[in-house]
Amino acid sequence: MIRHRLIQYAIAAGLTGVSACSSQKVDAVSNTAPAVKVEQAPDPNLITVDKPERFPLAVAASRAEVSELIANGSIAPDVSRTVPVNALSSGRVVEVRARLGDDVQQGQLLLTINSADMSQAFSDLKKFQADEALSKTQFERAQLLFSHGALAQKDLDVAEETYSKAKVDAQAAMDRIRILGGDPQRPSSVIEVHAPISGTIVEQNVTTAAGVKSLDNSPNLFTIADLSQVWVVCDVYENDLAQVHVGDRAQIEFNAYAGRKFAGRIANIGKLLDPNTRTAKIRIELANERGNLRPNMFATVHFQSQGADMRTVIPASAVLRLQDRDWVFVKSEGNQFRRLEVHSGPVNGDGTEQVFSGLHAGQQVVRDALLFDREAKKE
């Protein structure tokens, strides 16, 4: 009897345990998930500072500004004022009277050449002059005989024609001597080469005792350039060509004359692009009466458009350049400032900087962006 009751108690306890476990499982399934608390991430571009009055503000203004483009270039001689110096005959240089970089005057002696061509030209002249003298004597004799009826008309005509041809040959020989650079009245095998224009020798390819070849296979003996007017030639990328026009003003700066600006205008824009650099040549003409501007000087050119556009301008110190991007700090509510990315342009002569996008006229910006950024990081 006692054993039977113990078995009943055990069964009852087991059923009670199963019921309890089943109840707990149902409660776990039916329970809802705990509430999730969502926190807003702070805006990295919104900056809060203590005592915002420490940072002076500037108001973005709108005013008419000319478009400006900066390009690099160099000085080159004006091609229309550059003349090559050559000898029209071969020979050997006897003496060189001028050197690279010298200033020369028109007609000045540059060098002398001992030329076999000139010797041959004078030899031919003497022969033709002798033929001319002989044919003249024969013609005069034929005239005399014809006047006495001792010579036929056809023989007189032949003598006259022979004399005319001899005169032509002699004149051609004299002209050839002049073309080669000689003087028919002064027989000599030495040719004098003179400066064709006044200017500066910018190229020299000859020295004393050097051989001079004919024109078809010889470089220029000298190149003389009139540097009273020079070119500034620069390359502009095709993406920027729409910003430049013939007649636009240009301010040119040279490393040799720091702080000094030269004024010019665009005279020509190349019609062809360089296939490797995708640039076009821009040419500016500059007066150079004092000779301060020398070929191959490096130049920085600021192109300015003829018209003006309305642009937003702020102090240049208000722009912070960080990781190849431009930022400004705009006054917000209370002691808060918002950092905005802008597309800035060139800096004007009065210390202001143009802003193409990202900022509007009337907004207040921190005048010294670098100082504000440094102080804000400390806080």
Write the layout of secondary structure elements.
Layout: H1 2-30, E1 46-48, E2 57-59, E3 61-77, E4 82-85, E5 91-96, E6 103-104, E7 109-114, H2 116-147, H3 153-180, E8 190-194, E9 199-204, E10 211-212, E11 222-225, E12 229-237, E13 249-254, E14 257-269, E15 279-287, E16 298-315, E17 320-322, E18 325-331, E19 336-347, E20 352-357, E21 364-366, H4 369-378
Antiparallel strand pairs: 1-19, 2-21, 3-12, 3-16, 4-11, 5-7, 5-10, 6-9, 7-8, 9-11, 12-15, 13-14, 13-16, 14-15, 16-20, 17-18, 18-19, 19-20
Walk me through the structure.
- By secondary structure, the protein is of the alpha+beta class.
- It folds into 3 domains: 66-77 and 226-378, Efflux pump adaptor protein, beta barrel domain (Elongation Factor Tu (Ef-tu), domain 3); 87-112 and 192-219, RNA polymerase II/Efflux pump adaptor protein, barrel-sandwich hybrid domain (OB fold (Dihydrolipoamide Acetyltransferase, E2P), Beta Barrel); 116-188, Helix Hairpins, CATH 1.10.287.470.
- 26% of the residues lie in helices and 38% in strands.
- The protein is built from 4 helices and 21 strands.
- It has helices at residues 2-30, 116-147, 153-180, 369-378; strands at residues 46-48, 57-59, 61-77, 82-85, 91-96, 103-104, 109-114, 190-194, 199-204, 211-212, 222-225, 229-237, 249-254, 257-269, 279-287, 298-315, 320-322, 325-331, 336-347, 352-357, 364-366.
- The strands form 4 sheets. The protein has a 6-stranded antiparallel β-barrel.
- Helix 2 (116-147) packs antiparallel against helix 3.
- The protein is rod-shaped.
- It starts with a helix and ends with a helix.
